[in-house]
Amino acid sequence: MGHTEPIHLRPTAPLAERVLLPGDPGRALTLAQLLIEQPKMFNHHRGLWGYTGPASVDGEPLTIQSTGMGGPSAAIVLHELIALGVRRAIRVGTCGALDPTLGLGELVVAREAIAADGTSAALSPTAPGAGDAGNSDVLTRTLAHTGLADRLSVAAGAGQRPARLDATIASTDLFYEADWAHAEHWRGQGAIAVEMEASALFAVGERAGIEVACLLAVTDTFNADGERTRIDDHELLAAAEAMGRAATSALAE
User: Tens of pLDDT along 169-210?
Assistant: First the structure.
């Protein structure tokens, strides 16, 4: 944590103190077009597209910065944003369902994340290694900022799209090769969904003393054999818009 000057982000426009963090650069562009008046490109270095400008909801500055995939990339991006002045951040991302009653396109407000990824383990001295995090009887968890998560729950719950509030999720390093024995263990520990970045972002935010929360859209469901059903592009766009509007509303409080 010794570097203060950004290495991977090269800002080309002013940074807001509040930021949305999608993983996908394309989703960052989509959300910027929906949520920012006359967005300006904030960053394009390393393909991590970011945009900034006045938010449509309140006219105050908002930055939308993609993090890329996985905890290491997300942690780097948030670390550098904090060094540049960010004080509040909400991940707006996607997840796979662990709870079979979750439907495609449903929203999930993550209050805590099971730290089954290497980045969270590295950031938490008392955490087990990533390999142990899937098997330990007592799983290490990282937490969203309570106040920001409260506002996010209110905003998501007020929308027309179904939303699970106050959820536990699991964060892992694997997408295709996920171990379903671990998934069953995560379910047993209360996790209803799995993704790749939230735990690392929570850990970075806690260490830096800033507010970090997380809102996810379910994009993948699985049958008993682990066979995946993927959301279609139209429904994903609608879910992303719902996430962006709820998260921006929470940041406007």
Answer: 999 998 886 666 688 889 999 999 999 999 999 999 999 999
Structure tokens at 49: 């597209």
Nearest Cα residue to 21 out of 55, 53, 62, 60:
62
Residue 96 has pLDDT above 70, yes or no: yes
* pLDDT score for 1: 44
CA distance linking residue 120 with residue 109, whole number of Å: 19
Q: Are 6 and 83 in contact (CB under 8 A)?
A: yes
Confidence (pLDDT) at 90? 98
The answer to whether 96 and 221 have CB atoms below 8 angstroms apart is yes
Show the domains of the chain with their CATH numbers: 18-252 (3.40.50.1580)
Rg (CA), the chain: 17
Phi, psi of 114 (to 5 degrees): -70, 125
HSE (side-chain half, CA atoms, 13 Å) at 162: 7
Q: Measured between alpha carbons, how far is 171 from 249 in angstroms, rounded to an integer?
A: 25
Rounded Cα distance, 28 and 34, in Å: 10
d(CA 122, CA 74): 14
Check: CB of residue 170 under 8 Å from CB of residue 98: yes
CA 123-126-131 angle, to 5 degrees, is 75
- The CA-based diameter of the chain, rounded to the nearest angstrom, is 50
How do residues 107-142 score in pLDDT, each as one tens digit?
999 999 999 999 998 887 554 444 455 455 557 899
